[in-house]
Each structure stands twice: as C-alpha cells, then as structure tokens.
Write a structure and sequence with these properties.
7-stranded mixed beta sheet, alpha/beta
Length: about 240
C-alpha cells in the first residue's frame, strides 16, 4: 500500500449539491502538491443523496474513502472518525459547503513546516451579518476564557500534524476547542489568513451556537484543563 502524505477530512450532512464540485475543485490542488494523498468524506447521517453520490464518485476518484454514520452524531464525531481513519502525516480539514477555498491549502501546508496545528482566519467573510457578529463575539469569549489566542476557531480549514493530533482526546463539541487543547499539550500553533466564499447551495447545519449550553460547558471544561495543567521544572535529577 502506497504511503499517504496528506489526508483531507470533510464532514458532510445533506450536501448533495456541493460534494461533486468540492471534489472537482479540490483534486487539482492536491495533485499539484506531488505527494500521495487521500480524501475521507464522512456522511454524518444525511437524509438526502449525499451518500449515494459519494459512492458513485468513489468509482471515479480512487483517492476517495467514505465513512457513513448510521445517524447524525455531529461534527466532532465526524472529525474524530476521519482523524482515526487518516493515513496521512498531515491532516487537512475543511467544510463540505464549499465556503472554504481549496486554493488556500498550499499556504497552510507551508505554515505547517514548523507548526503542529495551522488554523485559518477568514478574511472578508461571505456570511450574513448576524452570523458574522455572533461568530466574532463567540470567538472573543472563547479566546479569552480558553487562552488560545486564535481569532477564528470556527473556520474548519485547518492542518493538523497527525503525531500531535493522536495525543488529543476528542469529546462532543471539542472540535471547536482543538487549538486550546493543542496549546495545553505544548504543541505549536499558527494562524493564517484565508479566503472565504458565500454558500451558494444547501443550508448551514453547523455553527458555534447550535448547542449553546453545551458550548458553554465545553468552554469551561477546557478552561479547567488549562488551569489544572501540570507545570513544574526539574532542577536536578540523579541518573
């Protein structure tokens, strides 16, 4: 089996109108990197034709691998399943709504040369003003509470070093706080500005406040982990 260098992980829920164009746009970008790669699409309990389309596309695109849930479990579970199945040394995540621009991937990979997690900061967001304001407030509160210094953790376009990611335990809702968890473990983080595009097909399924009470409890849990982190320095140690 050929060694895989890059794995692209994409959670999907009712994205039948986007998946074909997403793959058609992503594939040339990945091929230009001249490294073996794979694409893992996780069908998160779609009720439309997303899974059927993925199965059809898998006969055309040999790099496509499919994970299908028996029902909707949420984005954290979808990412976790993709992470565990990934064979690449670097794992690239993105949304299935085509608002993330695959053309930004090479820049993120360049930044990953000396980082364990590269986050994206959306410039000129193409979202309704209500969503942009809500996201800005949520990011500000999260960054202050969790001390992660990341301006836009809600952008799914990220690059993870697999060796670091394997040391992070995932829980429901924790995909929003992965930068903070990486910092707690002492890993290196960067943030890179990226393009953002308007959603033209389908409807938004995931957002920061989908489960507001759970989000608050998750944020407090991460803050507790940050505060209770072991911090000591050894002065001497005998052989």
């Amino acid at each position: 089996m050929e060694k895989v260098h890059y794995t692209v992980v994409v959670p999907l829920k009712n994205e039948e109108d986007n998946i074909q164009e997403l793959i058609d746009e992503l594939k040339p970008i990945m091929q230009k990197l001249h490294e073996p790669w794979e694409l893992i699409c996780i069908d998160d309990g779609s009720s439309d034709n997303t899974l059927a389309i993925l199965k059809k596309l898998s006969h055309i695109h040999p790099e496509l691998r499919i994970i299908a849930f028996d029902k909707n479990y949420g984005q954290s579970s979808a990412f976790d399943a993709g992470f565990k199945s990934a064979r690449g040394e670097l794992i690239i995540t993105m949304d299935g709504d085509r608002q993330n621009d695959p053309a930004d991937i090479p820049n993120l990979l360049n930044a990953a040369a000396d980082a364990d997690l590269v986050c994206s900061r959306r410039v000129n967001r193409r979202d309704p003003w209500t969503k942009k304001i809500t996201s800005k407030i949520a990011n500000a509160v999260r960054s202050r509470v969790c001390h992660d210094s990341v301006q836009d953790t809600g952008c799914s376009l990220k690059v993870y070093r697999k060796s670091a990611l394997q040391k992070i335990k995932m829980y429901h809702g924790m995909h929003r706080f992965l930068p903070a968890l990486f910092l707690i473990e002492g890993f290196r983080i960067k943030e890179v500005p990226v393009n953002h595009r308007e959603r033209t097909k389908g409807k938004t399924k995931y957002n920061f406040f989908n489960r507001s009470f759970n989000t608050i409890s998750d944020m407090l849990a991460v803050r507790w982990m940050h505060q209770r982190q072991l911090r000591y320095q050894i002065d001497e140690e005998s052989p």
